[in-house]
Amino acid sequence: MASHEIVDPTEQTGRTTRQRLVQIGVPLLSVALILATIGGIGLHTYRSTRAGVLGLTHDLLDSVQRYVVQDVTGYLSAATTGASFAQDFIGHARSASKDIAFYAYGGSMLRLVPQLQSFYLGDEKGGFILIERDPHGKGMEYTQLRPGADGADGVFHHDFYDEHGKLLRSEENPADHYDPRDRGWFKSAIGKDEISWSSPTLYETTKQLVITSSIGLTGTDGSKYVFAINTSLNLLSQFIDGLKIGKSGKAIILDSTGHIIAGHDFSRIVARAHGDPSQMLLDPKTQSTFLQVYDRFRVRGVGSHAFKSGGKNYIGIAENLPTTDGWVLLMVAPESDFAAFARTSGRESIQFSAIIVALAAILAGLLAHQSRKTDRANRELKRQKMQTASEADALQRLADTPDLFDGASEPLSLTEALARTSHARRVAIWRLLHDGTALICDDSYDSSLDAHSGGFELSRNELEEFFKLLDAGEAVNVAVASRDQKTAGFSRLMMREAGTTSLIVHPIRGTSHGASGVIGMMTLEDAVFAPHLVYFVDIVAALAAVRFGAAAETTAVTSESELLAPAPAGLSTPRFDEALVRPPVVAGQTTPGAFPSVAVMVITFSDPVMESGERPEALLKLIDQIATEVQNIARTHELFSVKVAGHRLICVAGCTAEPDPSAIRRLAEAALALRERCVMLLSAANIEPIFSIGMDFGPALGGELGQEPKTFNLWGETVTLAELMAQGAPDVGTIEVTERVYQALRDRYLFRSRGSFYAPGSGIGRVYVLATRR
What we know:
It is found in: Cell membrane. By secondary structure, the chain is α+β, with helices and mostly antiparallel strands. Among the domains are: about 110 residues, Beta-Lactamase, CATH 3.30.450.20; about 160 residues, Beta-Lactamase (2-Layer Sandwich); about 210 residues, Alpha-Beta Plaits (2-Layer Sandwich). It has 17 helices and 30 strands. Strands 1, 2, 3, 4, 5, 6, 7, 8 and 9 form a nine-stranded antiparallel β-sheet that branches. Strands 22, 23, 24, 25, 26, 27, 28, 29 and 30 form a nine-stranded mixed β-sheet that branches. Strands 15, 16, 17, 18, 19, 20 and 21 form a seven-stranded antiparallel β-sheet that branches. Helix 1 runs antiparallel to helix 2, helix 1 packs antiparallel against helix 7 and helix 14 runs antiparallel to helix 15. The N terminus is likely disordered.
C-alpha cells in the first residue's frame, strides 16, 4: 500500500472543523447579518416610498385627467355648444333670412374657432347650403345647392370671398344628384333636439379627417332643418399632443366601437390605415400600452390602473368624454415620470449601502485572509509532504521491481509509476531507432483501463514536425495537442481514439552508437502536471535510458533463428492445394476436429492479366515462380497447409490438437518472407505490387473431406477475420492483422495501429499493420 493511502484512525478532525467555522463562518455570518439589516431597511424604505409615490402619482394623474377632459371638452364645445346656439339662433330666424343668419353665424365661427372646418344646413325639402374655409386662401367659400330647370339635375353654386369679405369669384359645378336627406349626418339628427356624431370621414377639399356633429331644428314656419358642424381631427390630435402629461405621457381618443378619433402620432395612424377611418384601430405592436388600458376599461370601466409592459411600470387612465357619443379618453404615462425623486433616493440609498457592505466585506476578508493564511501554508506543506511520500513510494516500487534494467523485459513498472504519480490518463515510453527514422513504443499504460499495450511504430515520414520537436531535446507541454501544428499528427494517430487532449513530451537522453543525444521519449496524456514533478519525470527518463542502453548491448545482433521459437517435433509436411501446383509429396494425415491455436494467413491477388496488360501466356512463368516461392516458404517455416481459392492463397499453421505457440511466429516470418519475394518478383516483371495479406490467430475447426484424394478444409472466425484483414488492407503489399496477432507478436515485431473495424458476428475490434521485426 502506498504511503498516501494510509489513513490514521486516531486523527482528530473535529478541531479542524471548529477552526474553519471560527475562521470563515464568523466573518461571513457577520457580513451576512449586516447585509440582511441593510437589505431589510432598504426594502422597507423602498416599499414605503413606492407606496407613497404610487398614491401621489394616482392623485397627480387624476388631476391631469380632469384637466385634459376639461381641455378636450372645451375643444369640442365649439361643436357642441355652437350647435345648440345655432339651433336657437337659426331656428328663430325668418324663412327668408335663414340663409343670411346661417352664413353670418358660420362665418363668425370659422374666423374665431380654428378647429372648425365647415357648417352645413339642410332642410326636409332637399335644400342645402354650406360655408367652409377656402382651401386655397384665407377667405370663405359659400356654397348653395340650386335645383335645375324643368327637372334637370341641380348645380352647386360657389361664391369665394377674401378675408375682408370681398367677393372674388363665383363658380358652378354639377351636383351629381346630391341630396342632403340621404346623408348620415342628416338622417341621424332630423327631428331630434340632441347632438349626433358621425364617424370620421376624409374631407375632400382639405384632405383631412373630420368628424361631424349635427342637430335638428324647426323653423318659424314649421319646416324641419338639420344644422351640422365639421370639426378637424388633425387639429384635435395636435391639441392632444400638446397636452402635458408627466414627462412622456400620451393620450388618445376612441369612439364607442374602438376606432381612433384623435390622439398621439395621428398622422402615422392615418397613413397606416391608408386614410380609411374604419381601419384606424389600436395596433398591438406600437400601441400595446393603450390596448391594455382599453381592455381594462372595457372590463372594469373608467378609472386608473397600474400595469406592466415591456419590463416597465405604467399607469393608465380611462375616462368617458361628456357631450360625445360614447367617446373615451385613454391616457398612459410611465410610473417613472412621477417617481424620479424616488429613484434618485433609492439609488443614493443603494450607493450608501454598497459602501457600507464594501467596508464590512473588506474587514471580514482581511480577518478571514489573516486566519486562513496559516492554514494555506500548512496545507501546502502537508501536500508537499504527501507528494514527496508518493514519489518516494513510487521510487521504492521501482527499486523493488525485478529486472528493472533488463532491456528484454517490458517497462510496465515505469509507465505505471509515472501514471500514478502524475495522475495521467495514459503514459508511454518510446524508443528512437538508431537511424532516427522511427519511434517504437516499448509500453503504453492506460490508467483508466488498467491495461498495457505496445509495439506501435511512428515513422518520421508521417510525423516530420513531431520528430523535429523531439530532436530539439526540450520537454513540451501542449494543452490541446490536436491544435498544435507540431503535435497534431501524433494526436491524430495515437490520441484521438483514446479521447485524450493534453500532451506532455519528455525526451529521454542517453548514448547510442557512441553519440549522445535523444534516444527516446516519454509521453503523458491528460496529466495533472506540476513543476515540482519535473525531477521525478527526469528520474524515470534516466531509468528508461539505462534500459535502452542495456537492451542495445544484449540485442545488438539478433539472428532470424533467435526470433523464432522451435517448432514442435513431428509436424506434418506442408499440404498444397492441387489447384495451384502439384505437390511433390502428398502430406500426411491429421485428425479432424477443433484446433486451439491455428494461425491463418490469407493473401489476395488482383488479376495479373488486368494489371499487366500482357498476354496471359506471358504471365505463366511469373505465376510459376510465385507458386514455387510459396512452396519453399511453406517448407522453410513448416506450415501445415497452403490452399488456393481463386485469386486467394490461404496458408495455415498450428493445426495440432495441443496449442502451438510457435505457429503464429512461424506464419509471421512466412508473411514477411512472402511479401519480400512477391515484391521482388513483381518488380522484376515490371508489375506494381498487386497483393495484400491478412492474418488472424485463434481456434478453428478443420479436417479432410471426401474420398482420395481428400481435401483439407478449415472453418471458423479465425479464417473469416484473416480474409477480412486481407480485403481491408490500406495499401498493396500490406500485412494487416487482428489484435490477437498483435498481442502474440508485439514483443518481437513492430506494428502500426490502424484503428477499429467491425466484423459481423464478432463486433468491433482493433486492427494493426505488421511492419517488420524488432
